[in-house]
Specification:
The chain is an alpha/beta fold. 42% of the residues lie in helices and 16% in strands. The chain contains ten helices and six strands; from the N terminus they run βαβαβαβααααβαβαα. The chain has a six-stranded parallel beta sheet, with helices on both faces. It is globular, with a radius of gyration of 16 Å. It starts with a strand and ends with a helix.
């Protein structure tokens, strides 16, 4: 009997890893899934968010869990972390499921998001403090994530990635259709699925459908 496939779920900001619980609850026993806290997104990072540091964090956890290759599943900035991780250590990753990724930073969109976020009061962006049982993430942490995504061009590393990839994007998430398509065009073995009726963070709004998309693809690897 084959061992279950190790899968790492990587959340978006300002989500927490617990957002994946309803998704993971729907997965078959052939998948051994975890979702961990990511410094700079769901836990404070003293030096601010770093795509490299986040990717290394995920890779270290995957290497601790299995001697085999695993699958990385990421949404939004989590998808970018998964891309960077696969580029850094291709021998550890046998497949990617990327929801709403981009190959190049959508500068106008990120600029608008940062302008709006900068104007919002701390209480609208920050989570509960560590003393209150929360993550301790602050408004500045979230702004650091937006800054970390600014100016990215992932096309060279996307082209180097040889493992297969499933790229998903919600049908209603029109702002990310172009970016998701460019990711597929930049990879050697990727397929695009536009998911009708779903928005950007559809892992929250329709965990059963998200789990079905992941499990069907992973089991076919």
């Amino acid at each position: 009997m084959e061992a279950p496939t190790c899968v790492e779920f990587i959340h978006a900001g300002p989500q927490s890893p617990r957002v994946w619980d309803p998704v993971m609850a729907q997965l078959p026993g052939t998948i051994d899934a975890v979702a961990q806290t990511i410094p700079g997104i769901s836990a404070p990072a003293p030096e601010g968010f770093s795509l490299d540091a986040a990717a290394r964090w995920v890779l270290n956890d995957l290497a601790d869990r299995t001697d085999e290759e695993g699958v990385l599943v990421g949404i939004s900035v989590g998808a970018l972390i998964a891309i960077r991780a696969a580029a850094l250590e291709p021998g550890l990753v046998k497949g990617l499921v990327l929801s709403a990724p981009f190959a190049r930073s959508p500068r106008a969109l990120l600029k608008m998001q940062r302008t709006i976020s900068s104007a919002l009061p701390e209480r609208y962006l920050a989570g509960p403090t560590i003393e209150e049982g929360g993550s301790g993430i602050t408004k500045q942490d979230l702004l650091s994530v937006l800054d970390g995504m600014s100016g990215l061009d992932l096309r060279p590393e996307l082209y180097r990635i040889q493992c297969p990839a499933l790229v998903l994007v919600g049908g209603n998430d029109r702002a990310n259709h172009k970016g998701s398509g460019e990711v597929v065009e930049s990879m050697q073995d990727a397929q695009l699925q536009i998911v009708p009726g779903e928005g950007h963070l559809w892992n929250e709004t329709n965990p059963q459908r998200f789990a079905a998309a992941v499990s069907g693809w992973v089991e076919a690897l």
